[in-house]
Amino acid sequence: MATSSIAVERVESKSAPPNFMQLVPGVLLLAAVGYAGKFLEKFLNTYAKAHHWTFPNIEYVLWAIIIGLVISNLLTVPKIFQPGIATYEFWLKVGIVLLGSRFVLADMLKLGGLSLALVVVEISLSLLLMHALGRAFNLTPKLTSLLAVGSSICGVSAIIAAKGAIDADDEDSTFAIAAILALGALALFTFPLIGHALHMNDTSFGLWAGLGVDNTAEATATGALYSDAAGKVAVLAKTARNAMIGFVVLGYAIYWAKRGQAQGVGNKAAFLWNKFPKFVLGFLLMSLLVSFHTFDKGQVTSLGNLSRWAFLLTFAGVGLRTNFRQMSKQGLRPFVVGALGEVLIAILTFGLVLGANRIWGL
Amino acid sequence: MATENPASGKRFKLSLDTWAVILALALAFAVRMNLFTKIPW
Q1: Contact by Cβ (8 Å): A275, A246
Q2: B4: alpha, beta or left, given left = phi > 0 and alpha = psi -120 to 50?
Q3: Cα–Cα distance for residue pair A234/A224, rounded to 1 Å
Q4: What are the CA-CA distances from residue A204 to residues A36, A81, A241, A361 (Å)?
Q5: Which of A34, A228, A292, B3 is most buried, taking the most CB atoms under 10 A from its CB?
Q6: Contact yes or no for B21/A282 (Cβ under 8 A)
Q7: Distance of alpha carbon A29 from alpha carbon A82, whole angstroms
Q8: What residues in A contact B20, CB-CB < 8 Å?
Q9: Do A278 and B18 touch (CB under 8 A)?
Q10: Residue A328 phi/psi, 5° resolution?
């Protein structure tokens, strides 16, 4: 996971995990940036009220991302901070598991079932679409596979999982990750604007963000930027999407192995378990514990707040690891294919959510 | 992130996902045991 975090650094197959002390400076930076975002939201609201200004309420999520973006793009982040910044995905997963406490089983079954049904349609259509675009733009078949996996399921983690399974080049993986991250950063700002312009309700917007935005961190941030409730639904929909990662990667692994361009898959069940994101199980377990009244009301509030603190570190990391200068060096064609695919997937998922809203009244 | 398996003596690695679940469950357990009075936001 550490390799997936710093914007577009070359994807290395084997790197020694950092020790605990190496993580401390970066984690402290994440906390400082996240808390500065939270402080700015509160301070500006209080200041605007005291001076009778009309000032839009800009959420801490956006401030944390903006501060992170300013630091990573206008200043040079010293190397000492990099391992700790890379932990933002770890905090994201801790936050997702804890967020399970905000869903009782009935909600989980209703919204999760709906999300899963929409995810299956979304993944199938997205894979077809990305392959058609890859062929039209003459991308290499493996790069196309990586872009298809990244944009249909869950961004960087899916690309990393697929890279090993289909023996793709480091170069292709780097291209695909760069495209997915750049487009995720764009979605962060465009999705909420579109949602507000179209007066989408929280559930519809959350579903759209969870289905349409690729990387889990960006999908969570996009939902949270819209509203707290939308953030919750976005995480649920994205988690349902993440749960499919093993099946799609397995499909690709078998396809490339049959063509003699990847190692065969031995035990398919073991392969699926290996690729299955374990935090999805933690998320379900937490919901189950809350549904059986393991925690009282105050404790559930505390768990929800812990999840928000973990997400705060994630949002700071989203800004800090996005470096537009580095991304622009990665070549235009994969980016164009990714961008075209993303816009079409955004339209497609918007249509799916609209249809679900008509039928089930979200 | 590598851990010694006492049964076999073989080293096995827990994924980052698993560590995230372990930390989250440990925090939930601490909350359940009222080790934290109340987590503010």
Answers
A1: yes
A2: beta
A3: 8
A4: 30, 38, 16, 9
A5: A34
A6: yes
A7: 10
A8: 90, 93-94, 97, 278-279, 282
A9: yes
A10: -70, -20
Min Cα distance B11 → chain A (Å) is: 15
In A227-322, where does DSSP find H-type helix?
A: 228-242, 245-258, 268-275, 279-291, 297-320
Q: How far apart are CA A243 and CA B18, in angstroms?
A: 15
CA-nearest residue of chain A to B23? A94
Decide if A94 and B40 are in contact by the 8 Å CB cutoff: no
User: A319 is written with which tokens?
Assistant: 């800004």
| Pairwise CA distance, residues A355 & A361, whole Å | 9
Backbone angles phi, psi at B13, to 5 degrees: -110, 135
**Which two structure tokens, joined as six digits, stand for B4?**
């010694």
The helix-helix angle for A268-275 and A245-258 (nearest 10°) equals 130
Query: Do B2 and B13 form a contact (C-beta atoms < 8 A)?
Result: yes
Answer for the pair A327, A181: CB distance below 8 angstroms, yes or no. yes
Residue A197's alpha-carbon distances to A204, A347, B11, in angstroms, are 14, 15, 54
Record: contact A93-B38, CB cut-off 8 A: no
* Phi and psi torsions of A278, nearest 5°: -65, -25
Q: What is the pLDDT along chain A (362 residues), one digit of tens a residue?
A: 333 444 444 444 445 667 888 999 999 999 999 999 999 988 988 888 888 887 777 778 888 989 998 998 898 889 999 999 999 989 999 999 999 998 888 877 888 888 888 888 888 988 888 888 888 888 888 888 888 888 887 677 777 777 777 777 766 777 777 777 777 888 888 999 999 999 999 999 999 999 999 888 889 999 999 998 999 999 999 888 888 888 888 888 888 888 777 777 777 888 888 888 888 899 999 999 999 999 999 999 999 999 999 999 998 998 898 877 777 776 677 677 778 888 888 999 999 999 888 887 76
CB contact at 8 A, A100 and A280? no
- Selecting from B17, B32, B40 the residue whose C-beta is nearest the C-beta of A295 gives B32
Distance from CA of A242 to the nearest CA of B (A): 12
Name the region of A57 (left: φ>0; alpha: ψ -120 to 50; beta: rest): beta
Of residues A277, A298, A305, nearest to B17 (C-beta): A277
